[in-house]
């Protein structure tokens, strides 16, 4: 029996699991010329237009999926009705109009086209209603747990509004 209560057999299994999970995965890193030729083939020569919804039939619905993982709320300012938070956000949709990557480059298994957001494209909603609700809950209940839950709900609602505004702005 080891000093901390684990057997040496359990430690060996744990070490093997860590090694297997962190073992290098096969991959391919292309050159700058490969990346530019792939982008040229996918976006320029194919006639791709980023201002048109990426659907073959424009009457169909484009489903946009939002993934947000809140890491922390850094600051909430009631006076300016603003907050600062840290998290990961991803926006995903299926692009029917892009060229198939497998036919362009045999080694490519996935392709992501990143479009940076400008500060002017992001909606800045007025959060007065949400902070009034927060103040009412603090006065009535006075529990810290409720305050944290309300702040998290406010952050999620605002982020959904921002993402919808950005997606609408991208396809106008």
Automatic annotation (TrEMBL):
A single GO cellular-component term on record: membrane
Gene3D superfamilies listed in its UniProt record: Neurotransmitter-gated ion-channel ligand-binding domain (2.70.170.10)
Residue ranges of domain Neurotransmitter-gated ion-channel ligand-binding in the record: 36-96
Signal sequence, start to end: 1-29
UniProt-listed InterPro entries: Neur_chan_lig-bd (IPR006202), Neur_chan_lig-bd_sf (IPR036734)
Transmembrane segments: 122-141, 147-171
Keywords: Membrane, Receptor, Signal, Transmembrane, Transmembrane helix
Example of a GO MF term: extracellular ligand-gated monoatomic ion channel activity
Name of the molecule in the record: Non-alpha nicotinic acetylcholine receptor subunit
């Amino acid at each position: 029996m080891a000093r901390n209560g684990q057997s040496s057999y359990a430690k060996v299994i744990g070490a093997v699991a860590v090694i297997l999970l962190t073992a290098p995965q096969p991959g391919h890193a292309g050159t700058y010329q490969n990346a530019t030729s792939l982008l040229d083939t996918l976006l320029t020569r194919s006639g791709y237009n980023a201002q048109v919804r990426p659907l073959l039939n424009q009457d169909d619905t484009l489903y946009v999926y939002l993934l947000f993982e809140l890491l922390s709320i850094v600051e909430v300012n009631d006076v300016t009705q603003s907050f600062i938070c840290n998290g990961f956000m991803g926006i995903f949709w299926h692009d029917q109009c892009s060229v198939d990557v497998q036919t362009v480059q045999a080694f490519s298994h996935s392709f992501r086209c990143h479009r940076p957001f400008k500060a002017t494209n992001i909606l800045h909603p007025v959060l007065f209603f949400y902070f009034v609700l927060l103040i009412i809950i603090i006065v009535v209940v006075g529990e810290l747990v409720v305050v944290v839950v309300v702040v998290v709900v406010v952050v999620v609602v605002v982020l959904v509004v921002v993402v919808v505004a950005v997606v609408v702005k991208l396809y106008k």
